[in-house]
Fold this protein.
Amino acid sequence: MTSPEGWRWLFWTLFIFGGTSTIVLHFSLPETYAPILLRTKAQRIRAETGDPYVYAAIELEDEPILRLLKVTLSRPFQMLFGDIIIFLVCLYLSFVYGVQYLFFQAYPIIFQDIHGLNPGEGSLAFVAVAIGSIIGCLGSQYWDYRRQRPKETSVEEGEYDQPLPTGERLRLPITMIAGPFFIIAYFWLGWTSYQSMPVIVPMLSGLWFGAGSLFLFSGFFNYLTDCYYYAASALAASTITRSCFGAGFPLFTHTVSHSHLRPEVDLVDV
């Protein structure tokens, strides 16, 4: 049994969720960008003292809109092709993102075509992915807390013998944990996607997949944010490459899958 609202409600659901999240974040998420904080401070000082000559550096910038657009739109590509670390990170994330779309495109083939579930029942396989994602989100937050808190405590107590963890030491180890999670998820799904297997067995592969995805993307996104001054451009470079892979990989999913599932041609004695 499937939903009677039709496919359009998929986009309405995303719109409602995105709009609600935007409103909540607008009123609850504090501003952390240093130039904007200085501008707010300068505006407050001008209002309190009446001194019109107190300005933040960002208020003195008067770039033409065309130059601003040129810099903003070209910087992600300059960082992508000019920095080997960003290029390799984007390449790895893009490949994983493309295979992730293959993973999801294979679900209807496995749970509907092979196991005979209807679209509504087959969609329950994504519950395991959601649970794994929640586990990965909580695990990554706990990882960051445990790695960062002892260093912050030592600095607060005046112990400066150990430096604060850098982006590589703080963010990247969890991405190395994510790699085996993906291997387990893919092999688990591939080895159990047979009609003779209980349907719950291939569904459970989503636990590993969801947790690995959160470990990987949260680790690398935080790494790019910590290590690069133009973090938004670095993340934009990652988004561009990931979107290209995500759009291209599903184009050949059904061709490969159905050619694999097609029965062999019977040999006839002549």
